[in-house]
Amino acid sequence: MPDCEGNTYVFFDTFIKTKKLALMKKNAILLVLAILMAFTAQAQKFRGLDNSPRDIAYFPDNFAHDRKGDDKVFAKVSYSRPFAKDREIFGKLVPYGKVSRTGADEATEITFYQDAKIAGKSVKAGTYSLFTIPNEKDWVIILNKDVDVWGAYKYKEAQDVLRVTVPVTSTSNDYAENFSIQFKSTGDKKGEMLMGWAKTLVAVPVSF
Questions:
Q1: Poorest-confidence range of 27-41, 106-120, 159-173?
Q2: CA 138 to CA 80: how far, in whole Å?
Q3: Quick check: 104 and 179 in contact, CB under 8 A?
Q4: Other CB atoms closer than 10 Å to residue 151's CB: what's the count?
Q5: Which residue in 193, 93, 89, 189 sits closest to 143, CA to CA?
Q6: What percent of the chain has pLDDT above 90?
Q7: Calpha distance 134→201 (Å, rounded)
Q8: What is the rounded CA–CA span in Å between residue 64 and residue 129?
Q9: What is the residue range of the signal peptide feature (predicted)?
Q10: Which one of 4, 126, 129, 198 counts the least CB within 10 Å of its CB?
Q11: What is the pTM of this model?
């Protein structure tokens, strides 16, 4: 006679093993899905926008947009453009007589693609932090070797490669809501780097 008890045992043993295997597979799939979902969720968490937009100023002006053929760029400035928001800027928000990052967030950086002169002083090709010391009647323009820095909190004068002083031009009719930098050509391979915010404007002579 057939061994019914043995067959029943084998049947239930196989059934239980099959169920366990199916459960293990299901758990493995759920674990993989959970990991993928966690990775996807993490990958989508981007940092929010900065309060001050980042911008680029070229010499020649608007170079990347207007570039033709073998045109060459002489300088590029990367900087943040904080808003005035009806605040008193120079002398209050930006104190007189103190080193400024020249904008907001990371210190402004300027790249010279060939040797240049800033207000008559020579500077080698390269990338520098562009710090300033605003005063009521003039600004001190500083090029510093320490780049990729936040603000002017760790500014080191020993890293300066150039300092020049330029006069301030104040205009009552023109008002710049955002801090702005733009190059203006004044001749062959020479021009002015204009920096303005609110009603204050400075022009820094540059040549190549």
A1: 27-41
A2: 22
A3: yes
A4: 15
A5: 193
A6: 66
A7: 11
A8: 21
A9: 1-43
A10: 4
A11: 0.76
| Closest to 201 measured CA to CA, from 118, 124, 138, 122 | 138
Residue reference for tokens 């899905």:
33
* Contact partners, residue 185, CB within 8 Å, separation at least 6: 59, 60, 61, 191
Residue tagged 């907001």 (tokens): 104
CA quadruple 130, 94, 206, 180: dihedral positive or negative?
A: positive
Cα torsion 146, 149, 155, 158 to 10°: value is: -10
Q: What is the CA radius of gyration of the chain?
A: 31
Phi first, then psi: what are they for 3, rounded to 5°? -85, 85
Cα 150 from chain centroid?
10
Length of the chain in terms of residues written: 208
Residue 56 CA from chain centroid, whole number: 10
For residue 196, report the phi and psi dihedrals to the nearest 5 degrees.
-145, 150
pLDDT tens-place string over residues 99-146: 999 999 999 999 999 999 999 999 999 999 999 999 999 999 999 999
Residue 185, phi then psi, degrees to nearest 5: -75, 140
51 and 85 in contact (C-beta within 8 Å)? no
Q: How far apart are CA 169 and CA 181, in angstroms?
A: 14
Band (40; pLDDT cuts 50, 70, 90): low
